[in-house]
Design a protein that fits this description.
The structure is a homodimer. Chain A is an alpha+beta fold and about 240 residues long. The first copy, chain A, is built from ten helices and ten strands. In chain A, a hairpin with a 2-residue loop joins β9 and β10. In chain A, α1 packs across α2, α7 crosses α10 and α8 crosses α9. Chain A starts with 7 loop residues before the first helix and ends in a 6-residue tail after the last helix. At the A-B interface, β4, β5 and α6 of A face β4, β5 and α6 of B. Chain A binds a DNA duplex (30 and 30 nucleotides) through α9.
DNA sequence: ACCCAAGTGGTACCTAGGTAGCTGTTCTTG
DNA sequence: CAAGAACAGCTACCTAGGTACCACTTGGGT
């Protein structure tokens, strides 16, 4: 992409605001952007790990879920929801064996892409990136540990309450990242099925913790939600 | 530790054989060992993340489980079993916020320890280490993704069969890493409870997949185990 | 404006697996 | 070597949550 592109300034700003690239100089980011190509994915675009192994992606806008599934039962478990400023796939960047993970756009997705090899070269020119990647992976690791143990250690209701709390904006008290998701997707996030989520949403409505309009959950009472998430609330 | 220590050669060999330190030169490893202190933990020694945050450990012999638990119910879920050549805690090394994970020795444990700050300094002198850590984290990440989704995507029987297959030595056909573990610990590894594991072990015995003597599981029939793990076997 | 697909709410049923408890056996430690 | 702790096996029971429906609502596209 050349700097005369209509969206160039917006893309550059997105790179600058990314947690993954936060330690990089403006010059190095401009160089990176020059090597990148913009691409739009429509909602529900599906990719497997093979598809994304040879190209590195940076998300400018929209959300992408990373999930595993059991083809026999059709069950899915979402591991991460990536959004603006996130990149994928970091693991392919490290030459690790491909992992059988799936990727699906939750919204219209705007990404910048670059070949994996070019990205590796770029990184090697900026040693500070190694630290940034380490930090990024460390954080993801922590999240993953919680996800891994949540299912066995907590009930679905507790996990749902915890999910809402985790994604609430402290200021506006509105849901972020997981707003406007259908029950199906929420189910994938806590490792259960749609009908169970629907059931629990009714429960949370009944006790006044939340209110619901189509595809939209509003948190009404943080205290109740907290006590449920901490397993102190006996419904 | 000085080179005149009785165990010095054995410790140095352990460092050399570690996957984590595999790219380091013999000289750098000797320097590292000089900064380290040996320590012995008896079986069932318990540590929380605070205890291990300020000291970096290298395992010379024995096994250590890394787990999360729900104090209310007493349930535990083991995330990793670390053994010879493994190090902990890598996450503390990266300055990430402490994660509430617990550590417990499964056997008598022989570790080499070094202060976290000294370890950071040592790493910064050998840039090749950054790549090694990245690779190590990447691998762990993959494992974690599977652990995270296994519980929702597969039944306990399938997970048990998969656990056995994953830890079988191709040559000797004997279990490694998880041999001699009580049912309790096996339960923690697949995110269930002792009695369920015991139940499934009886099932696997009955269909001829394994045989059991006290604290010891012998795999008798790989094919059956495989078909169970792939959910093709209807018991 | 209309239609159809996507999404939600609700019900009834069922089973995997968690809980509790007891027994006999085998290590281990004083 | 004796006592008790740790461990495996087994039974009976119970419930969280998964499966399978159907009916109603909504909103985007033609």
């Amino acid at each position: 992409m050349t700097p005369d592109n209509n969206h160039y300034p917006r893309y550059l700003l997105a790179l600058k605001q990314s947690a993954f690239l936060k330690d990089s100089s403006p010059e190095s980011l401009a160089r990176l952007l020059n090597l990148m190509t913009a691409e739009h994915w429509r909602a529900k675009t599906f990719k497997n790990s093979m598809d994304v192994a040879s190209t590195f992606h940076f998300i400018v806008s929209g959300r992408l879920k990373v999930f595993k599934s059991n083809p026999d039962t059709g069950r899915e478990h979402t591991v991460f929801v990536l959004s603006k400023g996130d990149v994928f796939d970091v693991l392919s960047l490290l030459d690790t064996d491909p992992n059988d993970v799936y990727w699906e756009a939750l919204d219209k997705l705007e990404v910048l892409k670059i070949s994996m090899d070019q990205m590796r070269l770029w990184i090697n020119e900026y040693p500070v990136m190694h630290k940034a990647i380490l930090y990024y992976l460390g954080q993801r690791m922590q999240q993953l540990m919680s996800i891994a143990t949540d299912v066995t250690l907590h009930s679905t209701l507790v996990r749902l309450a915890a999910l809402l709390l985790k994604n609430i904006n402290g200021e506006t008290r509105k849901l972020e990242l997981i707003n406007n998701l259908p029950n199906d997707e929420i189910a994938g996030l806590i490792g259960t099925t749609r009908s169970v989520v629907s059931r629990h949403i009714q429960e949370l409505k009944r006790c006044g913790a939340i209110s619901v309009s189509r595809r939209k959950i509003n948190v009404k009472n943080l205290e109740i939600l907290l006590s449920i998430a901490e397993e102190k609330h006996i419904p």
